[in-house]
Amino acid sequence: MKNENRAASLLSALLHPLILPTLGLIILFNLNTYLSYSIPGQAKKFILLIVFINSAIAPVLSILLLKKTGFIKDITLDDRSERMLPLLLSAIYFFLTYFLLRKVALPSLLYFYIIGATMLVLLSLIITYRWKISIHMVSMGGFTGFLISIALLLQIDVYWLLMLTFLLSGMLGTARVIVNAHDLPQVFAGYAMGVGVMLVLFLYLKA
Questions:
Q1: Cβ neighbours of residue 37 under 8 Å, at least 6 residues apart?
Q2: What distance in Å separates the CA atoms of residue 120 and residue 126, rounded to the nearest whole number?
Q3: DSSP state of 207
């Protein structure tokens, strides 16, 4: 049981919501699409840096500061009530990311990606007010929905990447239950919301 918990905790850390937004862009920039060629290398590095700072570094620093000042008791945010302020700050950071990237002429798909992430954080914030939805699965669902969307929009074959993502999603959902962070409804709801929001948003872009 101890090894099982350790493996579940490790997987939760490797597929952390703070990592996936940047990972999604890295994958997008390395797929054989027009985006790989239309955006200069330096611009890609700038975009990745902005997204990583605002979606990973800034939230981590904010959580550490909130812990130090006594606003939260635990940096893992296991207590539902302690997730509210970090989620609000994350939404602000994502909005700032969108604002900064709008200063650069980029394909609209990238803007929609950031908008989708912002919407998911805001929806998670609203739901968390009453219920402890799985943020890990919201993020993983958003990542999955993003992959499905770019496959449809850009007409590219990401079959094996999607299969791997579905497998990891199932493993992550199981891990969140094993470590007693969430129950199955919270896991399924988070994943469904993540996939659904991204798909609806990108289908709107296609229309």
A1: none
A2: 10
A3: -
User: Tell me, what amino acid is at 5?
Assistant: N
Selection from 71, 117, 116 nearest residue 90 by Cα: 117
Provide the number of structural domains found in the chain: 1
30-69 b/e with 16+ CB inside 10 Å = b? ebebebeeebeeeebeebeebbbbbbbebbeebbeebeee
Report the alpha-carbon angle 104-109-115, nearest 5.
85
Nearest Cα neighbor of 97 from 136, 59, 148, 154 is 59
Q: What is the domain range of residue 198?
A: 2-206
User: Residue ranges of the chain with pLDDT lower than 70?
Assistant: 1, 207
Return d(Cα 122, Cα 193) in angstroms, integer. 12
- Model pTM score: 0.94
Neighbours of 24 (CB within 10 A): 22
The 3-state DSSP class for residue 34 equals helix
Taking a C-beta distance cutoff of 8 angstroms, is the pair 191, 142 a contact? no
Q: What secondary structure, in 3-state letters, does 8-27 show?
A: HHHHHHHCCCCCHHHHHHHH
> Whose CA is closest to 22, among 87, 76, 97, 83?
97
